[in-house]
């Protein structure tokens, strides 16, 4: 029944999906945290930059960002991100696009987490004479991160699903393989079922696991 | 809250912040200078690359038709997905275990799968098992994908909206002898619709953005793909992508702002029960594995 799978590297394609997810998740966690820091900080210029970035980026379709990294950055401007082969250039461009897009959502999740930390925590820290960076990194962010595990899990799951957009620039991940298989094979329904099952396997356990973690680490107040 | 993270600034802090601002500005200016420099080096800033956008024909041939298709697909998807989502959402709250289970499985399944996979699948199914002409097929496939995904997200919004109402509402309805259906129709739904509005409006943003997937992978002639065609023709990829991004930002920013205002207004309002499924909740409800909380918010 499943012999149509022969000759296709199904696991390889899903492995690329996982790699895209993990690398983009790490990148957007870092850049999103920096953006959130800017948005709650005392310097108006950085606050302005942070909110402009978030409001612009989250309203552009991810497809446009990803296609732009390939057509605009790579083919027009010659950006290769240090890679040489076609495949790895597009992979890195896709990660760049996903990081640029997802950080806006990480930033917003984190900012809502910062808002859940009681005012007294920041006041006490300031009363001790800590400066803004110290208040943020020692007192606020550690509590905020524990509060936003669930929203960040949502961002991560959305990111997992969004990696399929990388198919638009030819990254050989799951959706790209599915498109190819549909063109060559007759088993449309089975192919659909296989890929749907693959994504259910990736996203459902992540949601359940991180939902459990978020209850575990939440600061009890 | 954010202003409470730091003290009112004294003279030293003001000087320091000024220094940081200057540094940030310097770095930003350097980056901008470098970007503009490399753009100019590749001739991307030449007037001829931007000139097409001052020509009315560019707009009538490429941009308006594309925008029309984008909005058409988004509107169709919304109009079909809303009632479907409402049915699924209400079915998830049913007293019958079987109805609850079936609706729950459908919702969790379609939330767990990328929209692109659904679109590709729908396209293949229409190509293989239906008589839809190949001209219309991309639109059908895009709308089908969007409907399947967004109906299940909207189902969660509806469920969260109904759960957000005070329990007394349905108890009172039962006390005056309304049946289950009547309670839902005349007491719970009308109230929860206002509570859900912000989340529904912000879900529209997601739909508008996702139409671009059809342009990139299914030859659906929406805004991004018509502009890509044009940019290939004129060789002005940079200018074109900036214009198309600005159009999307304008539409979606308007929707986002509207959703935010609506939410603030409903939260202030005295007439409603005060229960609101916020715009942020829509994002939280679009991912599988977690059931909707009573107020629909994932945070906290």
Tell me about this structure:
Chain A: GO terms for molecular function: transmembrane transporter activity. Chain A: It comes from Streptomyces agglomeratus. Chain A: It is a multi-pass membrane protein. Chain A: It is found in: Cell membrane. Chain A: Pfam families: BPD_transp_1 (PF00528). Chain A is mainly α and 221 residues long. Chain A has one domain (3-217): Orthogonal Bundle (MetI-like fold). Helix content of chain A is 77%, strand content 0%. Chain A has nine helices and no strands. In chain A, α3 packs across α4. The longest helix of chain A is centred in the first third of the chain and has 31 residues, at 10-40. The N and C termini of chain A lie far apart (55 Å). In chain B, α4 crosses α6 (137-163). Chain B has 300 residues and is mainly alpha-helical. Chain B has a domain at 66-220 and 248-268: MetI-like (MetI-like fold), CATH 1.10.3720. At the A-B interface, α2, α3, α4, α5 and α6 of A face α1, α4, α5, α8 and α9 of B.
Give the termini separation of chain A: 55 Å
* Topology of chain B as a string of helices (H) and strands (E): HHHHHHHHHHH
Largest beta-sheet details of chain B: none
Tally of alpha and pi helices of chain B: 11
What's the number of domains of chain A? 1
The mean pLDDT of chain B is: 88
Beta-strand content of chain B: under 5%
Content-based structural category of chain A: mainly alpha
Low-pLDDT segments, ≥5 res of chain B: 292-300
What pair of chains forms the biggest interface?
A: A-B, 79 and 68 residues
Overall body shape of chain B: flat
Per CATH, the architecture of chain A is: Orthogonal Bundle
CATH class of the domain at 66-220 and 248-268 in chain B reads: Mainly Alpha
Please state the CA-atom Rg of chain A, rounded to the nearest Å: 20 Å
- Can you say what the CATH homologous superfamily of chain A is? MetI-like
* Count of alpha/pi helices of chain A: 9
Q: In the CATH hierarchy, what is the superfamily of the domain at 66-220 and 248-268 in chain B?
A: MetI-like
Residue stretches of chain A low in confidence (pLDDT < 50, at least 5 long) are none
CATH fold name of the domain at 66-220 and 248-268 in chain B, please? MetI-like fold
Q: How many strand elements of chain A?
A: 0
Helical proportion of chain B, percent range: over 70%
